[in-house]
Design goal:
The protein is α/β, with parallel strands linked by helices. It has 6 helices and 5 strands, in the order E-H-E-H-H-E-H-E-H-H-E. The protein has a single domain, classed as Rossmann fold, CATH 3.40.50.
């Protein structure tokens, strides 16, 4: 039996894998007539290590992320997804992607790339994808390839 997804979350971080996941999430949202929630999490822990912390740095990162999110939003609309939203969140990507955002938005499918941009964190404490696939309370699709079934 095929599940009908109603609210799909796709996590994007600017990596090639995230872009593959985005394309697949768009296709699934179209097939299911689902709402697509595009999510980017700005990891606030990365700012704690900057010795000359400057609020303008956070503002610049936020502006850049918003520009990218707007581009993803437009791509989804252009591809034919009827209902699309995007969110920028601040905090721990693992917790927000895997628990907080899905709960708050009643997500029934999380789509994300097999790896992302943060290789150092992946080596030290495990990947966001691994954490999300283990702890999420809904289905998780981990994308590794660009093939999209029609």
């Amino acid at each position: 039996m095929l599940k009908q997804y109603k609210k799909i979350q796709v996590a994007v971080d600017g990596s090639k894998e995230a872009d593959i996941a985005f394309s697949k999430a768009v296709a699934i949202a179209k097939r299911n007539g689902a709402t697509l929630e595009i999510l980017h999490v700005i990891d606030t822990r990365s700012f704690q290590n900057v010795s000359s912390f400057d609020s303008s740095m956070v503002e610049q990162v936020s502006r850049d992320a918003k520009t990218k999110m707007e581009a993803y939003y437009q791509r989804a609309l252009k591809a034919g997804v009827k209902e699309v939203h995007y969110s920028l969140e601040f905090g721990s990507p693992k917790v927000i992607i895997g628990r907080d955002f899905p709960k708050k938005h009643e997500i029934d499918l999380i789509v994300l790339g097999a790896t992302g941009l943060n290789a150092v964190e992946r080596l030290l404490i495990g990947s966001v994808t691994e954490y999300v696939s283990r702890t999420a309370s809904c289905d998780v699709l981990v994308c590794r390839t660009e093939e999209i079934a029609a």
